[in-house]
Automatic annotation (TrEMBL):
Signal peptide: none
Name of the protein in its database record: 2-methylcitrate dehydratase PrpD
Limits of the MmgE/PrpD N-terminal domain: 22-246
Pfam family, one: MmgE_PrpD_N
Domain MmgE/PrpD C-terminal: 265-424
InterPro entries the record matches: MmgE/PrpD_sf (IPR036148), MmgE/PrpD_sf_1 (IPR042183), MmgE/PrpD_sf_2 (IPR042188), MmgE_PrpD (IPR005656), MmgE_PrpD_C (IPR045337), MmgE_PrpD_N (IPR045336)
Record-stated family: Belongs to the PrpD family.
Superkingdom of this protein's organism: Bacteria
Length: 454
């Protein structure tokens, strides 16, 4: 087993070293789309009062890097502020082959380091690919037990952040893994339950991971290193995860960033199939939510623990299957505002939530239909209405198109950064030169002068 882990690490380091030859065009384009998607989520996230309050606490001294509200901070603090904003609305990019958000872990730290170090757009994109590759590889090697006990934002964010920053500083696969080992020892046992409980500290884990990523890279540079057994010890002995035999022996033919997904709905991805089923019912002729007597949702194992009927925060609502279903049935909408705090106390939504009963979807189909939902609503007149969604949009069989992601990004940033949409398209399509300073590109996207304080 030890030899297998050594071979796995050697292969991963080799994939990282190959990035020094430049990104293949498909990988480069995909990395740019992940970058744009997460940047737009940051811009939108910074509009929330709680995020703005946290960002204010992050300013302190230093102005090395941009916070996506247009302010500036030291690089690690800017990364922390942007990480909180990126995940706030549940609109950041994600990764289905293992339970994690590779972009959320890599992008905030990579942004800050690239700007502070005067790196180019191309160098930033490569660092995002490197951070994404390491975080997702670790997630696949140590798959989280079901039902989820620990949240991947806590266990994996330091690793993705450290890998991205180490790549920008060293361009060495071995050095990246050494930093990831230190970062693994700094990871956090954040309980998944806190997400379903709506505890906002869950949104801090990606931020803490970004800061820990910088700390891990600085520590390695100073000689405060771990060893190659560290990750295995942390995840198997510390967190109780099992090693995946399949991942140990597999050698991926392509970079993991190509297998990510993009989200349209501002709620936990595990709820999306139920969300779509509810929308189908609510958009049917003659629908009247006041006539609902009871609601049964048959769904997959990852969604069933999301059973709170009285969420108290927007985060709790996004991780509450009854709330997501009730909000859509009551409003007939699926836009981000429906899942904001404003609808938590809507009388009709509040009345519908306790009527939801969650049961297993049986038999459970295989991938890509392994996250299905079947919604059955009984009306007061005794009739029933049913809708089924085997796989929500954004899944492997229904991926968002590039134009859909760019339209989403433009919509999220239209008010705060009107130039963002056009600049994002140019970045993804490659008409923005990869040798251009990232600081200059970001300034154009936010319509601010690089280095200026708004």
């Amino acid at each position: 087993m030890v030899d297998d882990v050594v071979a796995w690490r050697t292969a991963l380091a080799g994939r990282l070293d190959s990035l020094g030859d430049g990104l293949p065009s498909g990988v480069r384009r995909r990395a740019a789309l992940v970058l744009v998607d997460d940047l737009a989520a940051m811009v939108a996230g910074h509009a929330h009062a709680d995020v703005a309050s946290f960002t204010g606490a992050m300013h302190g001294s230093g102005s090395e890097a941009t916070v996506l509200d247009g302010s500036r901070a030291a690089r690690d603090r800017a990364a922390a502020a942007n990480a909180v904003a990126a995940g706030w609305d549940e609109l950041d990019e994600g990764y289905r082959p293992a339970t994690c958000h590779g972009g959320l872990y890599a992008v905030p730290a990579a942004l800050a380091e690239a700007e502070a170090a005067r790196a180019s757009l191309g160098e930033l994109l490569t660092a995002v690919v490197a951070g994404y590759e390491v975080a997702t590889a670790v997630a696949r090697l140590f798959p989280a037990p079901r039902p989820l006990v620990l949240h991947p934002h806590a266990t994996l964010a330091p690793i993705g952040a450290a890998a991205a920053v180490a790549w920008l500083r060293t361009r060495s696969g071995g050095a990246v893994l050494a930093a990831a080992d230190v970062a693994a020892s700094l990871s956090m046992p954040g309980p998944f339950r806190l997400a379903t409980a709506g505890a906002q500290v869950r949104n801090l884990w990606a931020a803490a991971g970004a800061v820990s990523g910088f700390l891990a890279v600085d520590a390695c540079h100073a000689g405060l290193t771990a060893d190659p057994r560290t990750m295995t010890d942390v995840f198997t002995q510390g967190y109780g995860h099992q090693l995946s035999e399949d991942e140990l022996t597999s050698r991926p033919a392509r970079f993991a960033i190509l297998d990510g997904y993009h989200k349209l709905y501002a709620a936990c991805q595990y709820t999306h199939s139920a969300l779509e089923a509810a929308r189908d019912l609510a958009s049917a002729p003659g629908w009247d939510a006041d006539q609902v007597e009871s609601i049964e949702i048959a769904t997959h194992p990852l969604a069933r623990p999301l059973d709170s009927t009285a969420p108290e925060t927007a985060l709790g609502g996004k991780f509450s299957l009854p709330h997501v279903i009730a909000a859509v049935l009551a409003t007939g909408r699926d836009d981000a505002e429906v899942f904001s705090a404003g609808h938590l106390h809507d009388p009709q939504v509040r009345d519908l939530r306790p009527r939801v009963r969650i049961v297993p979807y049986a038999p459970l189909p295989g991938a890509p239909h392994d996250r299905p939902a079947r919604l059955t609503v009984r009306l007061r007149d005794g009739s029933t209405r049913t809708a089924t969604c085997l796989s929500a949009v954004g899944g492997p069989d229904r991926p968002l198109t590039e134009n859909q992601v760019l339209a989403k990004a433009a919509g999220l940033t239209a008010d705060a950064a009107p130039a963002f949409g056009a600049q994002a398209r140019s970045l993804v399509e490659g008409t923005t030169a990869d040798d251009r300073l990232w600081a200059d590109v970001l300034g154009l996207m936010l319509d601010v002068t690089p280095g200026a304080t708004p």
